[in-house]
Structure formats: structure tokens, C-alpha cells
Amino acid sequence: AFMQASWDVEEVQAEGIQYLASFVEDKTAFPYLLTCTEVITLAMKVHTDSLDLQVEGCTLLLEILSQALKQGVMMALDESVASCLLHTVRKHSENEEFLSMLCTLLMMVSASEVAAENLRKVGIIPDLLSILRRFLHNDKICFSCCAVLWSLAVSEDNADQAVLASALPVTSAVLQEHLHNGVVAESACSALWALALQGCLADSDYEPTAALLLDALRMNPERARLVQNGCLALASLVRLSETAALAILLDSKGSGTELIKEEYHLHSHQPGVAEALCLLVNEMVQYDDVMLNMRSQKMEKLLSEIKLQFPFS
Q: For residues 163 and 46, what is the distance between their CA atoms, to the nearest angstrom?
């Protein structure tokens, strides 16, 4: 009520945010803090010119969301909060340090399906893409933005086909730039998988995207989640086009089938990886020429091994 009585007074809003922040460590106050997210974001929207207030508000929201996630509480922030956050993103789109914090916040918010849907409704995707283009070198921003893209693109009833199609070159550029950074590469692979699921690729995209995903698998063979999501992304590409399947077989850096075998042997006790590899192989053998090639590569032997390892899956 103290904050709501004086929206236009920056000092009141700053004091209010600082007062709320003093309760972050108090477990009993947590349920009340959860109800304050709208007040905090609105204060940020009204005073977007004050960077200090933006930083303090964003820090407090991060604290509240972190606590919520630890306690298994999913915060489904509504459209008005999503709109306030977008307003803040646009106002401070040049400030790399603050954006890094804000993109982490967006990533945490988008873990909730309802909040992700609200961010999509207010039109945040083009802003995310422009942030990625501007700060392609920043691993933290790239990691967060790709994670948000994944959350926004993966929803079933996606009406943003044209907008999402424009995300492909940017997401590919992120993966290319951060191939050696497993954390960012993993996030970019997930985003590419979501874009492939939504059918956001043109004919000319299948080969280069497949080659890029294979590079990510080669560079980060030990990261089970990256291997899993990379294979699921490849499977989605292969489902759409034989060109992708041939690109995997005939990759200039080495046989994709050999890579599949190596990845399985590295992660032979990970059911998620085995499942993703089987899905990829299953999509590839839908094409006669590809199936003949895979037979000659003794792929059946690998599948028998997987069946023995996971007899009940």
C-alpha cells in the first residue's frame, strides 16, 4: 500500500523495494513476497529511467524466483508483469551488464508455461533476437536467451511461425560462436531443437544446421544433456528432410554414424541419451538409401547392444 500510494515518487518505490528485500532471508515472509512481484515490476516500469531502481528490482525478483524454485513453487507471472519486463528490456537494450541480469530473470520466469506464454503474447521474441545479435560474445546472455527461446518456441499452439523462423540464423550463430562452451552450446542445441519441432527451417537450412549440431556433439561429447538434445534436434531435422539424413552420413568432418556409436558408448548408462539416439536412427532409416548405408556401417549391432542394455525401455 505504501508503494501503491505514490507510484510517481522514485524514492518511495526504491525504499519499498529495499524494505521488501530485507525479508528475503525470512522463510515466514516468503508467501507474502510471492504476492509482491507485480508491485515490483510496475515500480520498475514507472521508473525505467532509474538504473539503480531497475537493478534493485531485478535483484529482488531474482531472489524471490530463486527461493520459489528451491521450494518447488512455479511462479506463473501474468501478462501485465510480462509487459513490464518487456518495457524494461527495451529501455535498457544497450546496457550489457544489466541485460545479463535481466535475461537470467527472463529465463527463470519462462520456466513456467503460463509465464512463457505471457512473454510470447507481449512479443518478446524479436527483442531477444536483437539482444543476441548485439551481444553474441556474451556467454551469459546467450545462455539465458536461448533457454527463453526454447521455452517460448516449444509450446504446441505456436502462432509465431514467421517470428520464430527469423530466430534460426541467430541461434545458429550463437552455437557457432560458443561451440567450445558446453553450457551455452547445450542451451543453443535445445533452442534449435524447438525451432526444428516448429518446422521453422527452409530447404537450404537442413544441411548447415545438421553439420553445426554434429560439430556441437563432437566438441562436447561428455555432456549427456547436450548429446541428448542435439540428437533430438537432428531427429527433428531428419523427420522433415532426407537432406539432413544425408548430411549426417556424409559430413565432411567424419561419419555421423560413427559419431552416434561413440556417443552411445560414452553414455551407455544414460537412458535419455540412448532414447534420443534410437529416435534419430529410427528417423534416418525411413529413407531407403540411408538405411542401406547404415546397415553397411553395422548399425544393427549397436541397436542390439542398446536393446540388451535397456530391455524394459
A: 29
